[in-house]
Amino acid sequence: MGVVRLLQREVFPKYREYSQQLANVYRLMSSSFAKDSVETLCKIRGYPLGESSQHEYLKDNPLGYFEVSDVYPFREFPKELGLFSKNGELLLNGRYIIPVTSVGGDLVSLIGYFDDFKRYITLSTPFFSKSAMFFRYNEAYKLSWGSYNGVVFLVEGIFDCISLWSLGLPCIATMGSSVSAIKGDLLKVFRKVIAIPDDDETGRKALNRYAKTGWKVPSNTVMVEFHGGVAEIGGASLPCKDMDNFVTWYEADDVREMLLSFVDSREEIDELILI
């Protein structure tokens, strides 16, 4: 898809137009969501049904599974929304649909998730930028200043973020393994940022905010070095590498208490070690 070039006076009207059209796309997709979307997604992600905080959260905030055989209605939308591949395939067909909003709460893209080799497919709409946007920023800002005195948690993945939301914690996701200087500026609106990269090589590099590979977080941030170790689940030994695993495999109240203990930390880099 070619680059969309706009004059300055044209940007805001086009932004509104594309956001509204994308909202219409999302409503049309929602009408085709499978009725058992939540339960199936929980099984895919390994969330216990009826007893996990994630299952309860997703029942109230469902990510619907979208699949249609007739894609013609979607061809009526502007090509700039990037709904179709070069081969004419509806990109998000057969995937769970995750809405992504701007800082102000406007819908700017849709992400299709499925547990296959692609994992995530993001619509390359004109006003979406992974290098300048977080997942659930607008919602986290409201909860952070409404109930947590300006504290927010920062994680890598969308499902890490959803899992912390299931504990009632304000959380945003980088939607990747990096935090740019632009994103760092967006974090300055919070009083305290608790940043928790994944327990892997890339996550370790993210901890040093001054290094080239580090997250460019502001001074109001405590970086948490997460050592998840190995959990014994159903007789199997599984690595606990991120916040999604942590919330799934451990008691919700214990996880919440451990995470909130970093609110008073004055360290640039602190540690969370599971024994």
Structural write-up:
With 275 residues, the chain is an alpha/beta fold. It folds into 2 domains: 8-32 and 67-122, no CATH class; 137-273, 3-Layer(aba) Sandwich (Dna Topoisomerase Vi A Subunit, Chain: A, domain 2). It contains 9 helices and 11 strands. It has helices spanning 8-30, 37-45, 53-60, 137-147, 158-165, 181-186, 201-206, 243-249, 252-260, and strands at residues 65-66, 95-101, 107-113, 120-122, 151-155, 171-173, 192-195, 221-227, 230-233, 236-239, 269-273. The strands form 3 sheets. Strands 6-5-7-8-11 form a 5-stranded parallel beta sheet. It is globular and about 55 Å long.
List the topology elements.
Layout: H1 8-30, H2 37-45, H3 53-60, E1 65-66, E2 95-101, E3 107-113, E4 120-122, H4 137-147, E5 151-155, H5 158-165, E6 171-173, H6 181-186, E7 192-195, H7 201-206, E8 221-227, E9 230-233, E10 236-239, H8 243-249, H9 252-260, E11 269-273
Parallel strand pairs: 5-6, 5-7, 7-8, 8-11
Antiparallel strand pairs: 1-2, 2-3, 3-4, 9-10
Helix pairs in contact: 5-8
Average pLDDT, all residues? 94
Element order: H for helix, E for strand:
HHHEEEEHEHEHEHEEEHHE
Shape-level CATH architecture of the largest domain? 3-Layer(aba) Sandwich
Ends distance: 49 Å
Quick one: how many beta strands?
11
Structural class comes to alpha/beta
Name of the top-level CATH class of the largest domain = Alpha Beta
CATH T-level fold name of the largest domain? Dna Topoisomerase Vi A Subunit, Chain: A, domain 2
Total count of domains:
2
Report on the biggest sheet.
Answer: 5 strands, parallel
Helix count, DSSP H or I runs of 4 or more residues: 9
Strand content: 15-25%
Overall 3D form: globular
Low-confidence stretches: none
Helix coverage percent: 25-40%
Strand order of the largest sheet: 6-5-7-8-11
Q: Kindly provide the radius of gyration, computed on alpha-carbon positions and rounded to a whole number of angstroms.
A: 19 Å
